[in-house]
Protein 1
Amino acid sequence: MSDDVAKFLDADIPDPTDFPADAPGLRQLDEALRCTMCRELFEAPVTVNCPHGHCFCSMCIRTALATKDECPLCRHAIREVHLRRNTAVEDAVRAWGLARTFVLQVLREKEEAKAATVASKYFSGKPKSKKRRRTPELSSDDEVVEVGERNVSHSLKGHTSSSSSGVVPCPICNKSVPMQNINNHIDQGCPSPKDADLDVLLSPSSKSKGKQKQEWSKLFQGGGAGSATTGSKKGKGKSRGADQDADPLPKIAYDTVTQKRLREILEELDLPTTGDRATMSARHSRWVNMFNANLDASPSQRKSVKQLMLELRRWEEAEEKKKTRAKLDAKDFDSGQYQKDNKTTFARLVEAAKPKAPKKSQSPHEGPPASSLSPSDGDSIAPPRRTEVVTIED
Amino acid sequence: MDARLRRVNKEIADCKNDKTSKVSIELVDNSPYHLVGSFDGPEGTPYEGGHYEVDIIIPESYPFQPVKMKFITKVYHPNVSSQSGAICLDILKDAWSPVLTLKSTLISLQSLLCSPEPNDPQDAEVAKHYMTSRSSFDETARYWAVTYAGAPRKSEQGSKDVDAEVAMAGLEKAHVDRFEALGFERAKVIDVLRRLNYRGANVPKISEDRIVEELLK
């Protein structure tokens, strides 16, 4: 099994079994405060209009409703307009997130104290007791990190290990903060992360128009309030602010709009306009769900528009990766054709890898260039024939 | 780790942690999206004692699209293709819900073995066999379980002189012998008799001439 898979299986993802089965109510409580679709603690929980009043994360149920108009648990017909915020559950989840860490820590200390009394029967001496005192503190640090279970987005978590421009979940307030600012953030008592901090992550790949708007927004906004001043000319400025009770974005029937109109709609929302019609439609649809789901959280728990945009970008990148992986894994993947299609790239890579060939041995006429990368070479790529090299150097 | 991956991880861990369900999941290749699930044949069925393996593929839009499952172990069941292992089960198609998990789906598969649905079959021939002669079906299913799923052979079966091909096809040795004596190839006889569902109540209904006609084709 590869390292990635081993790491995947070992990943410590919090779930009800963290609690002992005999601890009264703990597992049930953890289970009860989790969305049955994503198995995470509820994020922006909403109740649906089925007779049982089932509750899900806003984002989860909105995505599910895109496929089927029924409650995932009881299969009664439900509608997106009838989703209602469930503040009580949201507050309970927030409290549980903190309590959970504490409870696990207490349980662990109890276990260790028990183990210590058993161990002390076999061993004696100070060194051991020093070790014991150290481990509870270490584990509590681990637990503190665990609180960030549902920070801003799971994809953001992936950035913790990467460059310093990565965003990390604050272990205390759960908000996402650029890693270089995390110490200041905690020292200042966890204020809302400024959107300006996140601009550094968004701007590099923004397209021209969107980027200009963002540059202006950096000049104008104080921080945190969303891009009210950079709202589109069509008066959508009010709805961009995630702090106020903004209007949810309307859904559109993608089949009835022209590609041009679709691009306009994306521009109005400051979203990238790259990709074909299907890509743009998927992007818009995902954005609408994310934005509306965000409004289902109580104001203090909402993410800023910038954070949402970052999440959207991460999601699109992951989707791209899935598509290319699916293409390569497809049964009808023709490796010969693939080699032909990417002939120049392969040739360039091979040329770069080869030691320098003496010039006089190159001859311009040496058979058809197309067959230089024949499928019969199997997995290894044959060095290109001389003609191939000549063509490139031209 | 994205949401889909996290969920899959939780589900694998869930199966590992739950000792009572006797359902297990393992990874194949290096992809966490290609798994093999397995469970024991349920008691009180011809599949008892057998160990069944199921190929699981987790699609891109999981959990909003159903997980793709098919039997690796060959099973004799009206809702499972005897050739490809494809499964006809509502929760794997239109009755899928995002709250279903790998564990719950595998348990549903296990109960499908307990209660076949011959009115919505995957394998028409097996379904016809089931409807025609339940006892013969059970015998055949048991034979398949012994041969393919490692179910322990019952002593009574061992003493009888069992012709493998005949038992596999769920037919009577006497019938096969009779038509073979007419000069037809054994494999062809078995094929035709199986296709015509020459079992139980059908035996008096299908004339010998009809069978010979099929054999001559």
Protein 2
Amino acid sequence: MTVATSAMEPPVQTPLLEVERISKRYGGAQALSGVGLRLYAGEVVALIGENGAGKSTLMKILGGIVIPDEGEIRIVGQPVRLSSPSQAMDLGISLIHQELNLADNLSVEANLFLGRELTWGGPLGLARGKAMEAKSRELLARVGLNVSPLERLSNLTPGQKQLVEIARSLSMDARVLIMDEPTSSLAQKETDRLLEVIRELRQQGVCVVYISHRLREVEAVADRVVGLRDGKNAGEMTRAQINYAAMVQMMVGREVDLHQRNAADSGASDRGPVLRVEKLRHALSRGEGVSLEVRPGEIVGMAGLVGAGRTEFAETLFGIRPRVSGQVYLEGQLGKIQRPADAIALGMALVPEDRRQHGLILAESIGGNIALPNLDTHQVARLLRFSKIRHTAHQGVTSLRIRTTGIAKPAGQLSGGNQQKVVLYKWLHRQPKLLILDEPTRGVDVGAKKEIYDLMHDLTRKGVGILMISSDLEEILHLSDRVVVMHEHQKTGELTRAQLSEESIMRLATGSQS
Amino acid sequence: MSKGESSNMFRTFFSNPTVGRILGVFLLVLVLYGLMVGIEENARSLENHQNIARRIGEWGILTLGAAFVIITGGIDLSIGSVVCLSAVSFGILLENGANPVVAALIVLAGAGLIGLFHGFLITRLNLQPFVVTLCGLFIYRGLAQFLSLIDFKRLLDPALRGTGRILRDSSRDVGVGGRGDLGWFFWLQKGDFLGVPMPMWIFGILALIAAIFLHASVYGRYLFALGHNEQAARYAGVHTNRYKVLAYFLCSLLAGLGGILFLMKINSASPSNAGNWFELYAITGAVLGGTSLRGGEGTIIGILLGTAVLPLLKTLVIFAGIPSDMEFSAIGLALLLGTLADELLRRHSEKARKGA
Ligand SMILES: Nc1ncnc2c1ncn2[C@@H]1O[C@H](COP(=O)(O)OP(=O)(O)OP(=O)(O)O)[C@@H](O)[C@H]1O
Ligand SMILES: [Mg+2]
């Protein structure tokens, strides 16, 4: 079989998987209406669309997790009913979820094989620990993750966990492998590796469905692009037609130039730094600790590979992790930060990396989530001012274009990107002096990304200092006035705007001191 | 295996929070035991050791069941009442001439059904384990009292029918009907083998099976996974509901066994007192042994140690001459200190690990 060529031309064989007129409704929201999709063996199909367009819903339907209201699914021409995850897996469909779905209390190996363990003793189901451990090493090597299979998963960073999810799905020998934003917490190096693996899978005749808001990746790897908008099909592109601008147009129906940057956008000034960190160390730190400065109106990027210790640094700065040594000065004043409340009182805000665990109370309404860190200004005599809370929430929903049926909707029911916007807004509303953003646009669509960038520029013009941790190199290059690079819990260098380039960052990020 | 690798395994082993827990409870058991044999000459007797071992066995069987449920992130408050209902039903069956083996099987089947019923309510109807089993706690004890009210002789014997009321005025203690064919059953409770009381043997064997089930089979992994992150387990294709039901089933089944042994211990069971507090003893044993009430954590070795704490404490209280009215307070206080020490120890080991 000439799989390689079939990827290039529109194939004529029966589709491996075919979806027709699929609809799904969630209460008041029509997540999908009459969507169709055809997938062929040996191709990489990118599914793109704005936040809330229905991409994850469609994929959850294929994964047997969500049951559609209407529509038909056929596998190699045969109609099938997908009513449970194990059924979908049996049919050769495997799904990497947008949000991590792993058991933190188990080892890496147990997670890799969960639900499909190698066993002996028939119905006794005794685990073949050694065999699985050996296979785990292979799988981890394949995705380039250097941890022991016996390591407890809770000791891994979100990026490393994401790689575990990917390795897990690779072990399933799926015919259709769906990846819902697999790279949103990965850095360049891991991403490149993943794209390589995807190309290998295509060679082997696997159909990969790739969802990402990082359109450069889509450009690099997709054979075909399928667009969704408001739960409907929004067109298709073949390999030859794929380009950045056209994809943006397909998703949002207008042009968005992420990279347009006015000279006025940089509000960096010569005033004294709003934040000065001196040799900050925490329990995991190596060397002398991290020192850096953020001036008012400046965006300082923080780059590094997955596990470089950027999040831990931010957490220590914000009083979440105990500080071992070092000083933090805000506007020249020594800040005594022992808990987040201290940091907030000093005018800091932190938008955390893991929105579901640290950013949101998932069962709480959008309004309630936004109000939580702002309760001091939304109360009279300790009683809540509901009208003001509603007003603020509406302001957030409008200004960040959060796609929802209302501010009373539980945050957990929003699409991933829209959840991110809620986390952002709840801190932006405080108008902090120093804003720490940990992966601010993780899972956010281009349109919203642009809005977030504009917002950041607005803030810098008002003199807010921003420390931005990002694994999205493009974002770092585009937004930062200065970049601090980390490697294994140490600062390996600092680059001015003039020195910034992909290579200079990568060199420092992989640990070669400049 | 290379040296680096083995030291890595060493670290992985100690970074496991449950290992810290086990060391903590191990120390607690050592201290309690040391105090006991230190305070009182009599405590060093073989008989005392056997008594403690017997009690560890009796409660340990229940603790194993409680641990399964707790590992899935649930709770079973009905254990004591199931013990009571099983003991009472077993007694009534024996009093009315049932073959003891058949009677025991009926009781176990009934207890198993109760567990399945809990599992059904919790998984299918989505009720909370706390509420379901709390209702069970009341219902089964009430049912036991009701059963002891019925005069089965009158109900079943045509000759006696109509000669009086079928329901007695007040509940009574149920006995074994003076049967002579219960030798084996008494042996299971009162006998010993190689000097070790039989309940301890039963507990030990069950614990071994449970250890294989929890730590070496995939089913154990499923229980741990779903206890910590049910969605992840379900998305991985694990039939989470099935394993949850299994946990409640095993828990009640073991409580049924506990009930049978209970009746054999003193040849009678009072529907209002039998098995009182047992669910709390079971849960305490499991939790002291490092089974987290948040679900997803626990080891059989920890449970073995955790189960030993309460019987040791109770004996210690007696030997230390603490008035029996103060027994509960003394136990509670000791447990609090024990968990506190355990927590401090765990923090210390965590710090040591992070510092490394
Ligand atoms: N469990 C749920 N309950 C209610 N509404 C839901 C639920 N899951 C999804 N939705 C709604 O369905 C719509 C589509 O969501 P979906 O997660 O499929 O979007 P998406 O395209 O994956 O977006 P993103 O790029 O942000 O991940 C959204 O409006 C969302 O609010
Ligand atoms: Mg999505």
